[in-house]
Structures are given as C-alpha cells and as structure tokens.
Design a protein that fits this description.
Layout (H helix, E strand, L loop, with lengths): L18 H24 L7 H12 L3 E2 H8 L3 H13 L3 E5 L7 E5 L1 H23 L3 H19 L9
Antiparallel strand pairs: 1-3, 2-3
Helix pairs in contact: 1-5, 3-4
Length: about 160
C-alpha cells in the first residue's frame, strides 16, 4: 500500500476506497496537520508545549473550572495538572482564585495575556492551514470539507469500532 506523500501519489495496492487504505491516508494527513499545528504554535510569541496549549484551550472552553475538572478534561492526574497550572500561572497565562461559595476549591481562569496567546496561536494555525488549502483546487477543498463533515457526523453517532460490532 502506498501512503500519501510517498512516491506514487495516493495510489494503493487494492481498492482506493477500502476502509483500511483510507484510514492510512487519513493518518498520514493527520500527522502532517499535527506537524503544521506544532510549528505554528512554536512560532507564536510565547512558546508553549502541546499540553500547555491543551490546558489553555480547556480553560477557554470552560472558564472557572477547578483543578480536578481540568485534570479530568486533560486525562492527567491532579498533581500533574497542578504543576502545569503552576507553570501557566508563572507565565501570566492563568489566574487562580478562591471559589466564591466553596472555601476549599480554587477556580482557574485565563488571564487577558492567556487569551491573547491563544488567539495568536489560532491565527498562526489558520494562516498555515489556509496556505495549504489555497494550493488545492476548489473542487478538492469542497471534497475535503464534505468528507470532514461526514466524518464528524459519523463520529457523533457513536458508531462502535469495527472490533466491537
């Protein structure tokens, strides 16, 4: 099977529309997109790790979350989340404040600087992705968009993986 970006283009031994062949092609594209995402984030004014960016995005989506909830969202333990928040707070990206009704709980919130950093990273990522999309033919962009919408719809239905069917 030939993979995307390798000699021979996107041809495969066997069916081009086979689920496994398409999965390999998508995996290659995701690797490329991940690289693009990482490079764009590293070009931002403030370099952050992917874990730090994930934490900032989680806080953007759910302001005033506590440490335990953030740890659960990120799939990490509370001590790891606490150290991550220490670094983000030291960088001026995160603010901790006492919960107004629960004395033992601390709320986490992005600072203005944290919001600006997220906007900067998002803009750089959109610019890098836009450059790649601009080099595609309009019908290719439309096909990609349709395919991504179909993928998201299929994921939303919660179809079990093939091994569980």
């Amino acid at each position: 099977m030939t993979r995307l970006g390798s000699p021979g283009g996107d041809e495969t031994r066997g069916s081009r529309d086979g689920v496994e062949a398409v999965a390999v092609e998508i995996a290659d594209a995701v690797d490329s997109l991940t690289s693009l995402w990482s490079v764009a984030a590293q070009e931002a004014a403030l370099r952050l790790s992917l874990h730090q960016l994930r934490a900032l995005r989680a806080l953007e989506a759910a302001p005033d979350v506590n440490l335990t909830a953030l740890a659960e969202q990120l799939g990490i333990g509370p001590p790891t989340a606490s150290r991550l928040c220490d670094r983000l707070e030291a960088a001026g990206l995160l603010q901790r404040s006492p919960h107004p009704h629960k004395r033992r709980e601390v709320q986490l919130r992005l600072t203005g600087h944290g919001n600006r950093v997220l906007k900067d990273v998002a803009a750089r990522r959109a610019q890098a992705l836009g450059a790649a999309l601009a080099s595609m033919a309009p019908e290719e962009r439309s096909a990609l968009s349709r395919g991504l919408r179909a993928y998201l719809a299929a994921r939303e239905t919660g179809a079990p993986p093939p091994a569980q069917r």
